[in-house]
Structures are given as structure tokens and as C-alpha cells.
Write a structure and sequence with these properties.
With 303 residues, this protein is of the alpha/beta class. It has twelve helices and nine strands. Bound molecules: phosphoric acid mono(formamide)ester (CP) and norvaline.
Length: 303
């Protein structure tokens, strides 16, 4: 039987996503009560990280520890991957030894290639195209603060990047609307935009996108791997900072979201990310609970 991989939110049904959110909220409460729950005893998670990470790495490692399992962090610097061993061979070998594999790398196609040769589930921990784990945590966070997201409006302000693509997939799956405001040339992938067209509106005017929104969300203007475009991007994104004036266009009960790491004074003003509408620390914490729910779904509930 082929393992179930989660390379994008589109690999999960709307029901599965809602189930993960519900379960993440339960797992969070269990942890707050100090309840020990170790469904992954004797299980091993391999984590291949080709790019930097604070939240994703720590949440997967801590989650695995809390579930009674073990995790192995693999940097290409220290494995044969860095010396040219093919992804296909690495996938075949690792999946004979471990139960689950998490990968963060640049090209989305690399994760697809890896998954095609893996005998165990593979989870995308961020590629140039998608960041599905982030959206599971973000959807849990909205649910906790404001309830059902169905029928609400979110406004993405900034780069049409990997996180934006996952917000688009979330809008389609959970039936909310996403206004995306971006400077010319920095929009989301046209193919995905086409597939999500009933749930998104593409704009170039941040104020128009933010007006009446229930959520304002942004991300860095220069993602990992785009460091040498930083200057040009700062010029292109001038006027796209989420500041207090922009937040005032949204509904009074609107929340501000950001996957982090954030760059205060660029994509977001300090008084917004550190202000009363910001839920970014809950988003970060929920990476732990949402990914535990995902691991449980892939390794426990599936059997
Ligand atoms: N949001 C997120 O994925 O953070 P890290 O890069 O620190 O993992
Ligand atoms: N878009 C950012 C997200 C970091 C979590 C990046 O890819 O670097």
C-alpha cells in the first residue's frame, strides 16, 4: 500500500484538515493538563533540513518526544546527500529504517521525487512552493480565537510566496475568501490562482485588500534563498507594510497573523505584530499541536 504523503494541503481532504484542527485543540488541552500520551513509542522520525528553521524543527522534535518517539535531525552537510547521493536512494534507505520523514528543501519537485521513492509517509516542512504545516497551525489559531473560518475574508499583503500558496489552498479547502495584494511581478503562481479562482481576489492595492477583512496576514518580502534580492524587494514592496493604518481598514475584531520569522519595520510595523490584534505567538505554539495531530493521523489513525 502506498503511504499517505502530505506535500501540500491539497493532499488532505477538507474533512481531514478540519479533523486535524479539532484534534490539535484536544492535544493542546491534554498537554496543558499534563496528560502523558505516547502513541508513537518506538517510532522514529527523520528530519531532513536543507534550510534554516527554528519553529518547524523544534515543534517536530518536541512533538515526537511528547508522543514517546524519537527524531533524527539530518542536515545535508553531515549526510551523504550533501556529497551527491541521489534523493531517490536516500528515500529508499531511510524509509527502511524510520516511520516518518519530514523534509524542508528548496525545490518542491525534490520533495515529490523523494516521496515517490519513500515507503513511509513524507511531510513537506516548507519548499519554494508550499508550507502546509504552517497553515494547519494558522487554521487552528483562527478557530481558537474567532471560531469557524468558513465565509470569512483574509487579506494577504505582500509576496505571493510559499506561505501565500498554502493560504490559497486553505481558502479553497475551508471555504473562506483570500484577497491577495502584491506588487506587479510578485504574485502567486498563475496555475494555482486559476485553480483557486472562486476563493481568491488578486489586487495590487493593500488598502483595498484589507478593507472589511477578518484576518490580515503577511510574511517576509525575501524568503530563504532570495537573500540577494533583498534590496530590490524592499523597493518593490514599499507601501506594503502592514501598519496600524492598514489594520484600521479591517474589521475591528480582525486578527493579525504572520508565520514568523518577522522583520519589524519591513513587512509589518512593530506596533502591529506586538499589538493587541496579533496572534503570532499562538500561531507559533500551534505548530507543535497541529503537527502532532498530523503525525497521529499518518501513523496511528491510518492503521
Ligand atoms: N514559520 C516557520 O516555518 O518558521 P521556521 O522557519 O523557524 O521553521
Ligand atoms: N516565506 C518564508 C517562510 C519562512 C517560514 C520562506 O520561505 O523563507
Amino acid at each position: 500500500m502506498k503511504p499517505q504523503h502530505v506535500l501540500s494541503l491539497a493532499d488532505l481532504s477538507a474533512e481531514a484538515i478540519k479533523g486535524i484542527i479539532r484534534r490539535a485543540i484536544e492535544l493542546k488541552a491534554m498537554r496543558q493538563r499534563g496528560e502523558i500520551y505516547e502513541p508513537l513509542r518506538n517510532k522514529t522520525l527523520a528530519m531532513i533540513f536543507d534550510k534554516s528553521s527554528t519553529r518547524t524543527r523544534v515543534s517536530f522534535e518536541a512533538g515526537m518526544t511528547q508522543f514517546g518517539g524519537n527524531s533524527i535531525f539530518l542536515s545535508p552537510r553531515d549526510t551523504q546527500l550533501g556529497r551527491g547521493e541521489p534523493l531517490e536512494d536516500t528515500a529508499r534507505v531511510l524509509s527502511r529504517m524510520v516511520d516518518l520523514i519530514v523534509i524542508r528543501t528548496d525545490k518542491h519537485e525534490s520533495v515529490e521525487t523523494f516521496a515517490a521513492h519513500s515507503g513511509v509517509p513524507v511531510i513537506n516542512a516548507l519548499t519554494d512552493k508550499y508550507h502546509p504545516c504552517q497553515l494547519l497551525a494558522d487554521m487552528q489559531t483562527y478557530q481558537e480565537h474567532r471560531g469557524d473560518i468558513r465565509g470569512k475574508t483574509a487579506a494577504w499583503i505582500g509576496d505571493g510566496n510559499n506561505v501565500c500558496h498554502s493560504w490559497m489552498n486553505a481558502a479553497r479547502a475551508l471555504d473562506f475568501h483570500l484577497n491577495i495584494a502584491f506588487p506587479e511581478g510578485y504574485g502567486p503562481e498563475p496555475e494555482l490562482a486559476q485553480a483557486c479562482q472562486d476563493h481568491i481576489t488578486l489586487l495590487h492595492e493593500p488598502r483595498q485588500a484589507a478593507t472589511g477583512a477578518d484576518i490580515i496576514v503577511t510574511d517576509t518580502w525575501a524568503s530563504m534563498g532570495q537573500e540577494n534580492e533583498k534590496r530590490a524587494r524592499e523597493r518593490a514592496f514599499a507601501g506594503y507594510t502592514v501598519d496600524k493604518a492598514l489594520m484600521e481598514r479591517a474589521r475591528p475584531e480582525a486578527v493579525f497573523m504572520h508565520c514568523l520569522p518577522a522583520y519589524r519595520g519591513l513587512e509589518v510595523a512593530a506596533d502591529v505584530i506586538d499589538g493587541p490584534q496579533s496572534v503570532v505567538w499562538d500561531e507559533a505554539e500551534n505548530r507543535l499541536h497541529a503537527q502532532k495531530a498530523l503525525m497521529e493521523l499518518l501513523l496511528v489513525s491510518a492503521h
